Amino acid sequence: METKATLEYFGATTFRLRASGLTIFHDTWLDRPSLMPKYLNINDVTDADYILISHAHFDHLPGADRIAKQTGAIIIANCEAINRLRDAGVPEEQLVPVAGGERVPLFTKAVRAAAKAGEVALRGGPPGAPQEPHHTLATAELHIWPSLHCLIPGDHSTLPDIFDSGAEYIGGNTPFDSTLDITRGMEYGIFRMKELIGESNMDDKTASFTKWIEDKKTNVMSACDGGN
Questions:
Q1: Domain containing 18 — which CATH number?
Q2: Is a pLDDT exceeding 70 seen at residue 1?
Q3: According to the lineage, what is the superkingdom (predicted)?
Q4: Could you report the per-residue pLDDT of 16-63, keeping only the tens digit for each?
């Protein structure tokens, strides 16, 4: 009897899907700044088959390296995120870079282990490439959609505290405003908060967030979007 699929939400950007014999994380922002609520202890995650990362920003990518090392999960992400994870020590055989437009077969850990041992039908590939199962052994498939981080019209002084997804936002953007401005805003803004604001001017929440985002060794991230 097939087990009913479940989808869990852990706040902000992170979901866990259990379906077709697989456990799949979508983004991995579980270990957050100290004054933010946490809904799942990242150290308690011992089971994951795949990790899907939408992009490499601070509220999406952090934690992917830790879960992958704890569980052996395969990470599917854009090249910016993959490069950051590679630098963080995630084994190459667990990294799948995508750019958008791909269809990726998903396999259970048992099938992946059998392929590694040469006990099941294999996908063709160049000499020396990791042995992968034949696509007919997949229990699910993933369709990758290319995308860019959205940019809300207007500047930071006009952004509302709460966005209504059913509302139309109109601002004074130029034809050249784009996701590039988000990258610049993170690199020269969010990543420099202590310098720009000054520790003495921060409230507890801002100080907590600043301390967290400065720890890029623990919290793997990038100002660059990439997008998928």
A1: 3.60.15
A2: no
A3: Eukaryota
A4: 999 999 999 999 999 999 999 999 999 999 999 999 999 999 999 999
In a domain, 133, yes or no: no
Check: CB of residue 146 under 8 Å from CB of residue 222.
Answer: no
- For 3, counting Cβ atoms within 10 Å of its Cβ (0-12 exposed, 13-18 middle, 19+ buried), the class is exposed
* Structural domain span for residue 225: 1-102+144-228
Q: At 227, is the pLDDT very low, low, confident or very high (cuts 50, 70, 90)? A: low
> What tokens were used for 161?
């505290």
Cα–Cα distance for residue pair 176/35, rounded to 1 Å = 37
* Beta bridge mates, 143: 103
Q: What is the pTM of this model?
A: 0.91
Amino acid, res. 222? S
The structure tokens listed for 1 are 């009897």
Residue with tokens 């706040």: 11
What confidence score (pLDDT) does residue 228 get?
65
Number of domains within the chain: 1
Residue 22 is assigned to a structural domain of this protein: yes
Q: Does any domain span residue 108?
A: no
Classify residue 14: in a domain, yes or no: yes
